[in-house]
């Protein structure tokens, strides 16, 4: 019944979308023919039997249990990593055991990022090593690293107003939080431009474009 679990979300979506007497149109054009709608609706009893089997029957909670097992076993699956390859092999084998008759993989080229040795230090007024983590996707530093003053900003607006001070500095964002990030995300071009003037950025998810300067990014805790 693993096959039913895999297909359930799609079946639920189709059943919900095609139920009732609505006529689905886009710019005045009917999206589905009456014949196709009738065929989709004819599967309603089958869909309901699958829903009942998964929610109330022997398959109850199996989807969540399998998902929990999967994420516990493999955790993060970064593109190009061996962990991702192992998780794909696991799913192919699992779906094959559950009786799906068309399980296969395809070769695909994806960006591959490998973590190197990383560190961050306060060098003045005293030497102190910082707890830090280079963020996935960040470019590397030059072989000798980077030494630069730090500009502390507490909002995207503050960063924008200090663009002239950012050149040759390391920009440190303090506790901006997810809300500030999502609020500014749709209009963040000026933020990227300001950051591109800096030599590195601490506490920020890297987001490079083909037209922007790629700088080193990392998260730190004091």
Automatic annotation (TrEMBL):
The lineage of its organism: Eukaryota, Metazoa, Ecdysozoa, Arthropoda, Chelicerata. One of its GO terms (molecular function) is metallodipeptidase activity. This is Uncharacterized protein. PANTHER family: CARBOXYPEPTIDASE Q, PROTEASE FAMILY M28 PLASMA GLUTAMATE CARBOXYPEPTIDASE-RELATED. It is found in: Secreted. Residues 1-20 form the signal peptide. GO terms for biological process: peptide catabolic process; proteolysis. InterPro entries: CPQ. Keywords: Glycoprotein, Hydrolase, Metal-binding, Metalloprotease, Protease, Secreted, Signal, Zinc, Zymogen. Belongs to the peptidase M28 family. It comes from Amblyomma americanum. GO terms for cellular component: extracellular space.
């Amino acid at each position: 019944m693993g096959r039913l679990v895999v297909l359930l979300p799609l079946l639920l979506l189709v059943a919900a979308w095609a139920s009732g007497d609505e006529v689905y149109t886009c710019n005045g054009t009917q999206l589905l023919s009456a014949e196709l709608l009738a065929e989709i609706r004819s599967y309603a009893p089958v869909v309901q039997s699958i829903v009942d089997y998964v929610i109330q029957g022997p398959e109850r909670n199996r989807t969540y249990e399998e998902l929990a097992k999967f994420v516990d076993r493999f955790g993060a699956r970064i593109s190009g990593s061996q962990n991702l390859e192992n998780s794909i092999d696991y799913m192919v084998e699992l779906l094959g055991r559950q009786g799906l008759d068309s399980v296969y993989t395809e070769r695909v080229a994806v960006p591959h990022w490998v973590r190197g040795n990383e560190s961050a230090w306060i060098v003045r007024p005293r030497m102190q090593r910082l707890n830090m983590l280079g963020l996935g996707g960040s470019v590397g530093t030059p072989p000798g690293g980077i030494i630069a003053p730090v500009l502390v900003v507490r909002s995207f607006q503050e960063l924008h107003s200090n663009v002239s001070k950012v050149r040759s500095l390391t920009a440190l964002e303090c506790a901006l939080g997810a809300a500030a990030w999502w609020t500014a995300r749709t209009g963040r071009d000026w933020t990227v431009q300001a950051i591109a003037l800096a030599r590195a950025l601490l506490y920020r998810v890297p987001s490079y474009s083909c037209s922007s300067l790629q700088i080193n990014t990392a998260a730190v805790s004091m």
